[in-house]
Write a structure and sequence with these properties.
single chain, about 150 residues, alpha+beta, GMP Synthetase, Chain A, domain 3, SH3 type barrels, 2 domains, five-stranded antiparallel sheet, three-stranded mixed sheet, 2 helices, 8 strands, about 20% helix
């Protein structure tokens, strides 16, 4: 069983999910990085539990003898990858880069099926707002904008 499958199996029914698994086999020992998130966030205890489960599973399966394992959450500088990540960011300002390289900035209002609804502030007319619907498959990457107000 591969590492992503092991993590997915552990998370079944929990509201947590795996975003990415990277293995750097050029390092000695190889380094495994598992990036996880949750529909309502994820705690350090959740990461520690998954780390123990994965270590045990890797050992039992004899997948690797010697390795370094890191279970982490996406940083604020990491783009949203899955549609399900958007739900917990309703009300926050997003910077959305579309596949045709257009950049949309606005406050996430809601998710409807396979599209997001953003209240976009128009640059030409400060204060004027426009509701924009964006199909998820048209998004190249999205960053949550941090506000220090």
């Amino acid at each position: 069983m591969q590492i992503k499958q092991m993590a997915d199996q552990h998370f079944v029914g929990s509201g947590h999910f795996v975003l990415d698994v990277r293995v750097n086999s050029r390092l000695n020992p190889p380094k495994i990085i598992v990036v996880v998130d949750g529909d309502s966030g994820i705690t350090i205890d959740d990461c520690a539990t998954l780390s123990r489960v994965l270590s045990d599973s890797i050992h039992e399966s004899a997948l690797l003898e010697d390795y370094t394992l890191e279970v982490t959450t996406p940083g604020i500088d990491q783009p949203l990858k899955l549609l399900r990540q958007y739900q917990k960011h309703i009300g926050r300002t997003l910077k959305i880069v579309l596949k045709e390289n257009e950049v949309v900035r606005g406050k996430l209002q809601q998710i409807e099926g396979e599209e997001i609804v953003v209240e976009e502030e128009k640059k030409e007319k400060k204060g004027e707002k426009k509701i924009r619907r964006i199909e998820f498959n048209q998004i190249e990457k999205t960053f949550v904008q941090v506000s220090f107000k």
